[in-house]
Design brief:
Largest sheet: none
Distance between the termini: 53 Å
Oligomer: single chain
Shape: elongated
Radius of gyration: 24 Å
Low-confidence stretches: none
Order of helices and strands: HHHHHHHH
Length: 165
Amino acid sequence: MARPKTPINLTSQQTEILQRIARSRETPHSLVVRTHIILKAASGLNNKTISQELGLCKDTIGLWRKRWIEGSQNLDKLAQKPEKLTQVVKEIFQDKPRPGSPGKFEAEQICQVMALACETPPEYLSHWTRKELVTEIINRGIVDKISATTVGRFLKSSRSSTTSK
């Protein structure tokens, strides 16, 4: 027999915030799903029922139920600050950092690469190519080693972040 789950009790303010997040067209889908999990759990449904209704595995339901219980302990203190309460609720639903290798370049180095790409190229070049940028980056001592693909990735990410605003 399955262990009984810790009940989730929401205040009317918390319920309203979760419903607002779930209805928002600007909310990422993952956040909407997580709010639905908590709303259904608060209505008394068990993990198996919620998983069947939302088409998710029981482990996922259990994970977000557990994270809500752990993260919502201090929400009552924020009842007078609705904006802060909404922010903390969204933080509870954020993914935890995942393991992986650390980045190879510091932010300052990336900024220097971007600044170099904005400079006028030497007279013998009509424009910067990735290969020419790599050579100049290494010559200036910004980094010891970098690939043309990485330089292209830096340039592309800066271009997409400036055009999406």
